[in-house]
Design a protein that fits this description.
two-stranded antiparallel ribbon, alpha/beta, 40% helix, 12 helices, 276 residues, 10 strands, globular, eight-stranded parallel beta barrel
Amino acid sequence: MATHLERIVAAHRRAAADDRRPLGGLIEAAAACPPPRDFRAGLRSAEGLAVIAEIKRRSPSRGALDEALVAGEVAAAYRDGGAACLSVLTESGFFGGSPEDLAAAREASGLPVLRKDFTVVPADVCDARIMGADAVLLIVAALDPEELATLAGLAADLGLAALVEVHGEDEVHAATAAGADLVGVNQRDLATFEVDPARARRLRAALPEGVVAVAESGVKGPGDARVLADAGYDAVLVGESLVLAGDRAAAVAALRSAGSPRRSGPSPVGENGSCS
């Protein structure tokens, strides 16, 4: 039986195979967009633990979270709580997201935004820039080494940050071989969608010095965030617990306060440009 990841990636590869748009035209359109905001600097300059606050309506593991959420309103609440960056699901079939959610969240918050989706071909990277994203997700488990290098290189050419997601030490090696400087350790097993809350702590030592280390999934509150900050993570990416929080701004602020304060750097937000 196919895993969650296999089903989702297969669906995206089928859609990519049916896409007849010329890649050259997409690259040209993406390159013509205004410069993206600096996602990586947003994490580096955060005071306390940097929080990437996620907007998603549902997930294969939990089902519906908040199908009726208004992306711009949620994004503004996250900003008010001190989120460093946003992550917005644009995957529609399994997560109920859309490019419109990303555009609304980016406009309402003024923050750098990650397109959270299953990136499998260069057109996906171009689409991320065209819809207004400042960063793109590359999942090592969904890509072969050549694809990973190609997509990471294209993201860099277009000015996008690439959050390279790993689940084990072998994938850490693949990420660093592709030149990743922003690595997310996902504590959710993408085969079963179960969370292993110790995965990020185990893998932190395998991440090279100089990368921005992000812990993803399984962060339910400040206690979990404190453990990850103490383990050496620069940021946490949190979705379900924030979407379900009664006071989303306060929930983000509580996560931020769990980390030791770091010296602030320059503001990461550049021109408010987007092709969306």
